[in-house]
Amino acid sequence: MLKFIIKRFAAAIPVLLVVTTLTFFLVRIAPGGPFDTEKAVSAEVMQALKRRYNLDQPVYVQYFDYMKNAIQGDLGPSFKYPGRTVTEMVKTGLPVTFELGVYAMIWALLIGVTAGVVASLRPNTAQDYVPMTMSMIGICLPSVLLGPLLVLVFGLWFEWLPVSGWDSWQHKILPSLTLGSGYAAYIARLSRGGMLEILSQDFIRTARAKGLSNTAVVFKHAMRGGLGPVISFIGPAIAGLLSGSFVTETVFQIQGIGRFYVQAAFNRDYTMILGTTVLFSVMIVFFNLLSDIMAVWANPRLKFETSKGAR
Amino acid sequence: MSVLSAPRASIAGLVLTTLLFAACSGDKNTPVSEGTKNQILHIGNGTEPADLDPHVVTGVPEHKLIMAFFEGLVMPHPKTLAPEPGMAESWSVSRDQKTYTFKIRKNGKWSNGDSYNANDVLYSWKRCLSPALGSEYAYMLFSVKNAEQYNKGELKDFAEVGVKALDDYTLQVTLANPTPYFLSLLSHYSTWPVHKATIEKFGKVDERGTPWTRAGNLVGNGPFILKKWEMNKIIVAERNPNYWDAEKVRLKEIHFYPVDNLATEERMFRSGQIHITSTVPPDKIEVYAKENPELIRINPYLGTYYYRINVTKKPFDDARVRRAFAMSVDRKTLVEKVSKGGELPSFSFVPADTAGYTPQHSIPYDIEGAKKLLADAGFPEGKGLPKAELLYNTSEGHQKIAQALQQMWKVNLGVEVALVNQDWKVYLASQKAMDYFMARAGWIGDYADPTTFMDMFVTGGGNNQTGWSNKEYDRLIRQAAETGSQEARYAIFQKAEKILLEEAPIIPLYTYTNKALISPDVKGWEKNILDNHPYKYVHLSSEGEAGTLSKK
User: Fold this and answer.
1) Closest by Cα among B522, B526, B535 to B239
2) Are B213 and A92 an interchain contact pair (Cβ–Cβ within 8 Å)?
3) Which of B251, B379, B258, B267 is nearest to A157 (CA)?
4) CA A31 to CA B449: how far, in whole Å?
5) Smallest Cβ distance to B3: which of A121, A152, A154?
6) How far is CA A13 from CA A8, A76, B178, in A?
7) Do B232 and A93 touch (CB under 8 A)?
8) Would you call B213 and A83 a contact, using CB atoms and an 8 Å cutoff?
9) CA-to-CA distance for B486 and B179, rounded, in angstroms?
10) pLDDT tens digits for range A16-43
11) Mapping DSSP to helix (H, G, I), strand (E, B) and coil, where does residue A40 land?
């Protein structure tokens, strides 16, 4: 297993290198620079700004300087926020985004698995259609709409929960629910499919024939295999939750990394775009690996293989 | 069926938990109601500030923060914008209006208790003008003799710049030309002082982006000190006991929230989290104006929304074509039916009543006249006119306006205009490269004087970006800069503006308005065209009429 993990990490290095290099040059090709503003800036001022951020050097020099520093963990100064380094901003924003992502995942699993399992028990009846229709709505309803809707109902009408911010546990309910709902819907469909497949298998029939209660059949036997697809989905889902939190963070005024990520692109904050892109690439690689490991753990028929057979 | 009981129980559990919140968060005390009791003002402040260094930053959110932490030689009064004593307790102007002498107050202190004097201003202006710092607003000091040359690196010795400390408490400023609006330039934060020891503790004098502006490090001379700064979350300002006029300051704290989403900000206001918003979502303006007019403020703002025309591209190299486009726009309909934010239609460039200047000349709304001009230029009924493009930066508001104008030109002149939208930075680059036909633009005055508008369109001016050049216009603007009498200057500006409107390298559309939602508890938040609100005049009270200065 260790060999498998090491090999997978080794394979990730060229991926990260390509992502970093491409991003580095792509942001510089995009029209408009970090210091372009609505008001004209004199040539002298522009020169001083470029010198300050090393942009007066040839591009290849900038590239090698950047890579050298990045390997040592220094992602450079932000171009938009003069007093801040990218590393510092990642350090303040990432834990918040991570917390949000974890809570969203918990909501997604709680709602998704419940709905999926309930639906799978009586396929093609109202007990199936109702949760599945709701999950379809969940997939279709973007967080930019769901967030304000939840705020309107729970924040402004009932006044039960705060409309924005990220402090107490009350603050955290609506944002994580908003972010998690789309994933809950996917998980519901995945677990319904997985459960249906397992429930139709012989060993389940045997279990029932032995006279086991329905509860025991579902919880003890069916769910372990039936939720396999859900487990493989968790890794990519967490990566998606972390890198896709921008809208939720904006709607709820949360100080996470997602807001920096998107704003950096609009601001042409080169170092910030690079830093966050590399960070999210690392996370995607890591969580995919994690979900592969979990999939094997949940399904003993799979083995850690380093060849293309690993799933 | 027993198996269903488990999932059902969890759903029931969810519902129960939700109900539980109801029980524990039923408390109706909001940050606003608590804040009003304790003199803590909560403000929605737009985007996260780039920095708090007055010589580095450029934006509006930064301005609102720096107003709390720093103070210039003179400060504008919130109602009249007339200069009031700040760091300087008094000042005098020579007869030729070229020499200003400021008396710095002797009891003046920095927030750490150090005394300040004239040398602090000298040090700060040198910093602001130093070429290496690259201050984007250094030009605010260019009316000072030799300041521009020093900033451009043509002059190395700062002693030749027209600012001197005659003694510790006397500052003498020599100007290149009589500049009747010099004191209003000083209300701009780029001219405000910084604390030498703090700057140099964290870096070089002309180094940008050092940590000196962090909470705990920042030392200022304004009515408040920086207590807390959490990125994208909150900035807390606390009353500065060392401020010379601390007695007058009634707010204990100001909490600034960087909320870049307009809808979120409006919801925060509605749920009692903030007293004042930075703006109002366009679709909410009418709703508030109708249902809660006491909560919304719409005031004229020192800014013009206009379209630039690239005069180097056909067919716009012909002034008659440009003028025809400018004359066939129904601005009244535009502000009433399209932009709908209380904007004032503008038929000239400088906003009405800019420090007493109101344009006399205007672009008429005259479809027949426009048609005739177009025919004279060789395009009767718009026939044969090359298809032009109208560029705007991606935004719903700009799009609506562009579509309305596209329609007006089609109906009134019979011409087709294509709409092109670009992301903000791309749009800026396109304009700089003159790669456009017509482009949406906006200009907010830096200070209350027509100069900030009129000097944009001199030949080769950095903000011109239309390719337009007119010798007589250039001469008039130069002449105005050298004229001391306000009346004579304004007469020259009138002449220059007439040329600008006749030649029409721009199409003025409307005067901006400033929009905000404001709690009736906020007192002393006066209206003025710069949207400038010195916090020492503001206090909170749930009694009395909203927004008026206290009698104190």
Assistant:
1) B535
2) no
3) B267
4) 34
5) A121
6) 9, 21, 65
7) yes
8) yes
9) 9
10) 999 999 999 999 998 888 988 888 888 8
11) coil
Q: How many angstroms separate the CA atoms of B443 and B15, rounded?
A: 53
Distance between A167 CA and the closest CA of chain B, angstroms:
10
Q: Is B10 on the interface with A (CB under 8 A)?
A: yes
Token reading at A25:
């040059």
ipTM (interface predicted TM): 0.88
- Closest-CA distance of chain B to residue A18, Å: 26
In chain B, the N- to C-terminal Cα span, in Å, equals 75
* CA distances, A177 to each of A98, A217, B432 (Å): 14, 31, 45
pTM of the model: 0.90
* Residues listed for chain B: 552
Q: How confident is the model at residue A176 (pLDDT cuts 50, 70, 90)?
A: very high
pLDDT in tens, B367-424: 999 999 999 999 999 899 998 999 999 998 999 999 999 999 999 999 999 999 999 9
Interchain pair A39, B58: CB under 8 A = yes
* C-alpha closest to that of B386 among B315, B337, B335, B453: B315
Nearest to B357 by CA among B179, B494, B508: B494
Measured between CA atoms, the residue of chain A closest to residue B149 is: A44
Q: Write out pLDDT tens, residues B411-424.
A: 999 999 999 999 99
- Please report which helix (H) or strand (E) contains residue A104, including its range: helix A86-121
For residue B407, the model assigns a pLDDT of: 97
pLDDT value, residue A4: 80
Contact partners, residue B353, CB within 8 Å, separation at least 6 = B529
Chain B residues with beta carbon closer than 8 angstroms to that of A81: 48, 50-51, 231
Q: Do the beta carbons of residue B251 and residue B39 sit within 8 Å?
A: yes
Instruction: Name the closest residue on chain A to residue B152, using Cα atoms.
Output: A44
pLDDT-derived band of residue A310, with 50, 70 and 90 as boundaries? Answer: very low
CB within 8 Å: B25 and A117:
no
**Domains observed in chain A:** 93-310 (1.10.3720.10)
Nearest CB among A39, A47, A170 relative to B463 is that of: A39
Q: What is the pLDDT of residue B48?
A: 93
Give the pLDDT of residue B252.
97
Contact A163 B6 (CB under 8 A): no
- Beta-carbon contacts of B38 under 8 Å, excluding residues fewer than 6 positions away, are B252
Query: Residue B348 burial by CB count (10 A; 0-12/13-18/19+): exposed, middle or buried?
Result: buried
Structure tokens at A59: 């591009």
C-alpha dist (Å) from residue B321 to B310, B387, B392, B407, B506: 12, 13, 20, 17, 12
* Partner A, chain B 174-213, Cβ-Cβ below 8 Å: 208-211, 213
**B23 touching chain A per CB within 8 A:** no
> Any chain A CB within 8 A of the CB of B3?
yes
